[in-house]
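Section 4.2 – Deliverable D4.2 (structural model, holo form)

The reporting period included a commitment to supply a predicted holo structure for the target in complex with zinc ion. Inputs used:
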Amino acid sequence: MSHVLAAVAWPYANGPRHIGHVSGFGVPSDVFSRYMRMAGHDVLMVSGTDEHGTPIQVQADADGVSPRELADRYNRVIVEDLHGLGLSYDLFTRTTTRNHYAVVQELFEGLHQNGYIVARTTLGAISPSTGRTLPDRYIEGTCPICGYDSARGDQCDNCGNQLDPEQLINPKSRINGETPQFVETEHFFLDLPAFAEAIGGWLDRRENWRPNVLKFSRNLLDDLQPRAITRDLEWGVPIPLDGWRDRADKRIYVWFDAVIGYLSASVEWARRTGDPEAWRRWWSADAHGKDALGYYFMGKDNIVFHSVIWPALLLGYSGEGDKGGQPGRLGRLNLPTEVVSSEYLTMEGKKFSSSRRVVIYVRDFLERYDADALRYFIAAAGPESNDTDFTWAEFVRRNNDELVAGWGNLVNRSISMAAKNFGAIPPAVDLTPEDRALLEVARAGFATVGELIGKHRQKAAIGEAMRVVAEANKYLSEQAPWKLKDESQKERQGTVLHVALQVVSDANTLLTPFLPHSAQKVFELLGGTGVHAPMPEIVEVEDLDGGPAYPVLMGDYTVGARWESVPLTPGTPLSAPKPVFRKLDPSVVEEELARLGEA
Ligand SMILES: [Zn+2]
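Output (structure tokens):
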């Protein structure tokens, strides 16, 4: 048994999330966590909303609300979406908690004490007419990298590169259009080159990573530069140093604070369980270096933060970069075991775009379709290792042909036949070689499917689970228990149905990490009681340190099915089943396509 940290990317709280987002980080991390728990590991799955930074401030300004109010609004929307998908977070929190501020400041101070944070004089913008500092977000100009003409002083929204305001071509104030003046100002930088050797050695010891992720990460080491970790901005975590703590115009850069969320959320989770030190079982390199594993789930645009920058912060805090140093009071911290990055999902051949309405938000999806239908599509056809296109036609086809006609049909016909003819699970008498062969296919699935999920090959894993389903459908067609009507054939009919139901039960367990909502239903149709697939809950909590209350996702996942075949009990009453999956009318394709691109 290991301690398994599932560290899931933090969705940015400036709007609702679309299905591309949850395909990359949400569903794959939940499938992995559910499987690892069923296999007996001690899983801690944490994340939250990322709520600082310029885009939220800019949008709050535009909406005439405070950044906190805007973050409150979308934090709640995102919590509800992730809840609707059944994502089993041990804690889904946010970056505006006082606990998070304290952990971020602790890491900043530790890195600073060890010499890895250095002050540098850079150019900052001021307004010539007022003489006041002009925050980065109020400066706009042409991106020096891609030529986009509305790049902001800290980032280009077109190419995604981080910028400094003085790099912009033809910079202008967004307040009054005047050209800002650049004067010298002090900021803090993370000394990334001091970690190149340590990170290189760590990457050399990585096994099993997706090769493109490893190669991309190694290449980043060739050109490491000190990276700014503070900005001219009022919305963010204050800088915890004398002379800086009370300055309202300087804040820690959002990327620095958000990536520390994995650790702060683990600390918050531990504090909420009543054992404030419990987080160390996943994080302490001294006490739990060997039996603790950390898996980080994200889209490929975030690899650099998880394979270079986060390891640099952990190494620097632990005193393990070129400059040495001492671990801070949290002790030496574990580096990631694996960075699991997905590729991009596109929509009907186009990049997702909220402004151009090439989008389907999670909330709208869940209003019209079942969560497991989306989870199935993501697992079977998502962007696991290639950029992948979501089309409504393919979604409907997979739902109808695979989920409904394959798995749903197997569940429905085996249970209804047994209910009609026996009213209960019939006993098995004298198994034939065909019976034994099918039971063995299902039993072998536990090793195959489990190993594939453990290696983050979920597409192959669900394919193997669905192969068991296909074999069982074939078996039923060949054995044709509906033809065994004669009284003398009753025993054989019961045996065939027993075997089919046992394989339904096993396939249901194999599919539980992927399809937890329907797995619970199938479990109950087979006469099971209690929790089979535990679900997260939305809980309104108080901030632990006196800040405002907020909603979190948490759950008790110690209950539920184990990763094993459980023999069915003959005599368990069965009743006629209701369909577990909904067949979709092909007309939904046209309806959904008509919604795309509507203003
Ligand atoms: Zn650009």
